[in-house]
Amino acid sequence: MAVLTGKTALVTGASRGIGRAIAQRLAADGALVAVHYGSDEGAALKCVAEIEEAGGRAFAVGAEFGVDGDVDTLFAGLEANLGERAGQVRLDILVNNAAIGGRHGAIDTTTRAEFDRVFAVNVRAPFFLIQRALPVMGEGGRIVNISSGDTRIALAGELAYSMTKGAINILSRTLANAVGVRGITVNTVAPGITDTGKIGWLLDDPRMLAATEAAAALDRVGQPGDIADVVAFLVSDDARWVTGHLLDATGGMFLG
Ligand code: NDP
């Protein structure tokens, strides 16, 4: 029996990138996975199809974050599907992965609208998603919030985005202390630069790529599976004694 057999999981932003890899890994470990997407239903359905072809169970659920009713929309789809497929609305694992704005947020160029949007998607949505999820999460529940190595490494061009990830770090640690009494763990994973198919600006520049790789102790950029594997650990029973932890998954970026 796989380690997550009988468990249900919601992975936000699972239509592509790191979220897709997390969804695929949790499904391979036996969980019934809700593959959340913001706008790209086709990519989410492809992810679901790949999971099913590999023998796993998944369904897609769409909701654009940062707009009124975003969490209600997500939960309506989640509850309908869990009721139908699992016979009850119980969520064991929540991975808050969806986010925007990795390369934006400098102090001199960011507008109020951009600032509000990045906080609405990256902070407000996961906060209220957790608020909705906790009542249907029981003993052994797992929440993993995806942050960023930017919270340790100062990148002025990504200031507003980094601030949202700093908020995620606080959310995880403080919430862990509040819900631990219910047997629920809350942890943070902070990826470094990860090749999700969108870093052509880096991969196509040999000098910049070499400098980036050299800055990491493990001498390469990350792959989505590198992040999915540590999330799989944190949601497993093996991590039952780990909560309020920030796991740096940057390959040892700028260790000194
Ligand atoms: P991608 O940009 O590849 O994917 C983002 C996912 O989030 C997509 O599934 C997208 O759905 C969803 N999403 C985006 N905006 C919204 C929105 N407004 N409402 C709902 N869903 C939305 O992300 P990555 O895989 O690169 O990053 C995943 C996580 O890892 C993020 O939290 C990111 O901050 C963090 N991270 C990534 C790093 C990297 O180098 N890739 C480095 C450090 C941290 P759709 O396409 O359907 O709209």
SSE topology:
Blueprint: E1 8-11, H1 17-28, E2 32-37, H2 41-53, E3 57-62, H3 70-86, E4 93-96, H4 112-133, E5 142-146, H5 159-179, E6 185-191, H6 200-203, H7 206-215, H8 224-235, E7 246-249
Parallel strand pairs: 1-2, 1-4, 2-3, 4-5, 5-6, 6-7
The structure holds NADPH dihydro-nicotinamide-adenine-dinucleotide phosphate.
Question: What's a concise summary of this model?
Answer:
This protein is α/β, with parallel strands linked by helices and 256 residues long. 43% of the residues lie in helices and 14% in strands.
Structure notes:
The chain has 256 residues and is of the alpha/beta class. It has one domain (8-246): Rossmann fold. It is 43% helix and 14% strand. It contains eight helices and seven strands; from the N terminus they run E-H-E-H-E-H-E-H-E-H-E-H-H-H-E. The chain has helices at residues 17-28, 41-53, 70-86, 112-133, 159-179, 200-203, 206-215, 224-235; strands at residues 8-11, 32-37, 57-62, 93-96, 142-146, 185-191, 246-249. Strands 3-2-1-4-5-6-7 form a seven-stranded parallel beta sheet, sandwiched between helices. Strand 5, helix 5 and strand 6 (185-191) form a beta-alpha-beta unit. Helix 1 (17-28) packs across helix 8 and helix 4 runs parallel beside helix 5. The longest helix has 22 residues, at 112-133. The chain is globular. It starts with 7 loop residues before the first strand and ends in a 7-residue tail after the last strand. The structure holds NADPH dihydro-nicotinamide-adenine-dinucleotide phosphate (NDP).
